[in-house]
Amino acid sequence: MTYPFLEMPDKDGYFGEYGGQIVPPELKAIMDQISDAYETVRQTKDFQNELAELYKYYVGRPSPLYFARRLTARQGGARIFLKREDLNHTGAHKINHCLGQALLAKYMGKTKVLAETGAGQHGVALATACALVGLPCEIHMGEIDIKKEHPNVTKMKILGCNVIPVSRGTKTLKDAVDSAFDEYMKDPVNFLYAIGSVVGPHPFPKMVRDFQSVVGKEARAQFLAQEGRLPDIVTACVGGGSNAIGMFTEFLQDEKVKLIGVEPAGKGLDTPDHAATMTLGTKGTIHGFKCYTLQDANGVPLPVHSIASGLDYPGVGPQHCYLKDIGRVQYESITDDECLDAFITLSRTEGIIPALESSHAVAYAMKIAKGLPKETAILVNLSGRGDKDADFVSEKLGL
To answer: Last residue of a domain, which of 156, 174, 205?
Structure first.
């Protein structure tokens, strides 16, 4: 059987009808330069070896595959396994693509790397990678997220990063993207905008996916080695979608493995306070690419909400949109309350404090496990740890 999605994106950066480079001509030329540089450097042994060594000796890869025995017993039914990306250096999957993009920036002779961040995990990872390669780093972050995720803000500053508070609009992730993009446009020739997910104009959805695919490659091999089989269900949270694509990519050809992306239902899908782009969005354009978006009748992105700052984005990666349309990946949603319950439950049954983003996937696994046979295996990408969320959750729950 042929799998056309394995050859995507095409030369213009499209996954079916999604993606592309919907940018001004002068910026398209810059994007093409980045694409050409990436395609050149990724094939060199020096780059491959340097990245592999950093993953092993700096990040701590491979991250473990863990059977959550007590959580499984508590829920009953299916067995729940965790891919422990929370144990990576800097505490999440973000370091995987940040190292790749920082090395690319150094190869291209860029003078500054800048980006947006929501929960701060991309910001911390990029600040870390830039410190490692010796490049200045600038991170734009919404004022609401700065207050909510202050431990990560402190880390970024310690690492030498210039953190720019964003007060426009909703003061969250979408506005941080706009702010960082404005700064990038001042000198796109010498700056590199290191996009924090599988979003934005080509080549970023492809490039970030490629760097994150290490997660799925490890997980598939580990599951076969430890269990002698593949998981029945693989699930991951979806905002922009980098951790999910990183996990799903290696399983796309395994037709018997069900792939489920979990996005934020926020305060409820019947309210405006959610970020369920795949569930309720329509086709549109945002930040230089075509995808499903939450938008008004004029195509203007709507304000979105999630208890997890890293998921409150009104768009989603173009490959996710294509995989939804062809039915290869199923997309579900989890509310803030269900997320908080999973956050506390995993902490108290396994001694693992998950990021609020990752807690959405944990919550979905908990929800479906009860109704499945005991021989069913669910693999959750635990994309980050919850140190950054501990104070916020403690205050919210009165702990």
So the answer is: 205
| Grouped pLDDT means (10 residues each) for the chain, 399 residues | 74 97 94 97 96 98 98 97 98 97 97 93 96 97 92 96 95 90 92 95 98 98 98 98 98 97 98 98 97 96 95 96 97 98 98 98 98 97 96 94
* CA proximity to 115, closest of 181, 67, 172: 181
| Buried/exposed 181-205: b ≥16 CB within 10 Å, e otherwise | beebeeebeebbbbbbbbbbbbbbb
> 90 vs 126, 173, 177, 361, CA distance in Å?
10, 20, 21, 20
Domain final residue, candidates 205, 223, 245? 205
Residue 10 inside a domain? The answer is: no
What is the torsional sign of CA 304, 310, 315, 319? negative
Kindly report whether the global pTM for this prediction surpasses the value 0.70. Answer: yes
- Tokens (6 digits) for 263: 């996005």
Question: Could you say which of 290, 306, 383, 388 is catalytic?
Answer: 383
Active-site hit among 94, 112, 171, 174: 94
Supply 238's token pair: 């979806």
**Whether 383 is catalytic:** yes
